[in-house]
């Protein structure tokens, strides 16, 4: 018989939540109501942000004020029932976009998520979560000689972001794994790959950010484990780097997707506490 050793008074939180302001499928209000109905008591919205730029899945620059005002309105509506926070998932692209809190000061966000989705190459850039079919073509077009070089470029870009920017939460720290589950293109147990992870953990420690255990790759059918991998997460634990659970929800049904399994995932890696946001600061609670 399995013994439940998890905290019965656990406060459910989620700070990686998208809406139809970017590439989500539901409104802010719908996401908030779904969260409350699933016992979430601390919720943060994190629209994709590329500063003065945008794509089909980013918050458009002319809607930043509207987005911030809409979240502020929900904060009032849910006061006393659920804490709601304003955030952005800000992309890092060297020379163009920096997930730095100073660049978002106009909207006074409660937190900022730093993310690497685009990786520069000698002749352009490729998407870190590109499909398996497109990944080799994209990386070669960008000037990478092979998949190994592309993976190394991804982690190097992430470490560069960690060293240059000031943000609160690191998004899906090994997003490059997204397309490696169904059709393996590189060996995650290879010494070169583990060296990249170790170097990235060192950079995370130095930056002093919190890392998310992100279940979104499972929800969308790409992975059977969260970001980061068990190996990555164990290294984070050894360095006492704080982690929190986020579901990267783009739909109401994914607000708490795989959440309790993620709590056990953290326990298995050696963690006894998880981070959440309280009164503008990171707080911790027993898993």
The number of strands is 11
Radius of gyration (CA) equals 18 Å
- Uncertain runs are none
Helix and strand composition category: alpha/beta
Number of domains: 1
Helix content: 25-40%
The CATH topology annotation reads as TIM Barrel
The level 1 CATH classification is Alpha Beta
CATH superfamily: Metal-dependent hydrolases
Give the helix tally.
8
Residues in β-strands, percent: 15-25%
| Overall body shape | globular
CATH architecture: Alpha-Beta Barrel
- Report the average pLDDT across residues: 95
User: Main β-sheet: number of strands, strand sense, barrel status?
Assistant: 7 strands, parallel
Cα end-to-end separation: 20 Å
Order of helices and strands: EHEHEEEEHHEHEHHEHEE
Going across the major beta sheet, what is the strand order? 1-2-3-4-7-8-9
Please characterize this protein's 3D structure.
Pfam families: PHP (PF02811). GO terms for molecular function: histidinol-phosphatase activity. This protein is an alpha/beta fold and 287 residues long. The chain has a single domain (12-118, 148-286), classed as Metal-dependent hydrolases (TIM Barrel). It has eight helices and eleven strands. A seven-stranded parallel sheet has the order 1-2-3-4-7-8-9. The protein has a two-stranded antiparallel ribbon with strand order 5-6. Helix 4 (147-164) runs parallel beside helix 5. The radius of gyration is 18 Å and the shape is globular. The two termini are 20 Å apart.
Structure summary:
The protein has 287 residues and is an alpha/beta fold.
């Amino acid at each position: 018989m399995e013994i439940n050793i998890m905290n019965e008074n656990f406060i459910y939180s989620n700070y990686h939540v998208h809406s139809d302001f970017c590439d989500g499928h539901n409104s802010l209000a719908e996401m908030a109501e779904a969260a409350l109905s699933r016992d979430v008591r601390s919720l943060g919205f994190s629209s994709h942000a590329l500063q003065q730029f945008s794509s089909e899945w980013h918050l458009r620059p002319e809607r930043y004020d509207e987005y911030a005002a809409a979240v502020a309105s929900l904060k009032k509506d849910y006061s006393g029932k659920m804490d709601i926070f304003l955030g952005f998932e800000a992309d890092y692209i060297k020379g163009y976009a920096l997930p730095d809190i100073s660049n978002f000061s106009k909207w006074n966000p409660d937190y900022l998520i730093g993310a690497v989705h685009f990786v520069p190459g000698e002749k352009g850039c490729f998407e870190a979560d590109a499909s398996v079919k497109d990944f080799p073509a994209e990386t070669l077009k960008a000037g990478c000689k092979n998949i190994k070089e592309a993976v190394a470029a991804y982690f190097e870009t992430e470490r560069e972001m960690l060293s240059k920017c000031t943000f609160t939460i690191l998004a899906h720290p090994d997003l490059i794994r997204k397309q490696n589950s169904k059709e393996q293109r590189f060996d995650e147990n290879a010494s070169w790959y583990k060296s990249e992870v170790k170097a990235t953990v060192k950079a995370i420690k130095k930056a002093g950010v919190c890392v998310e255990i992100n279940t979104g790759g499972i929800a969308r059918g790409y992975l059977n484990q969260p970001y980061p991998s068990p190996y990555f997460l164990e290294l984070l634990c050894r360095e006492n780097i704080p982690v929190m659970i986020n579901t990267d929800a783009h739909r109401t049904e994914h607000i708490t997707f795989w959440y309790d399994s993620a709590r056990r995932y953290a326990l298995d890696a050696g963690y006894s506490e998880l981070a959440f946001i309280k009164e503008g600061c990171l707080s911790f609670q027993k898993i």
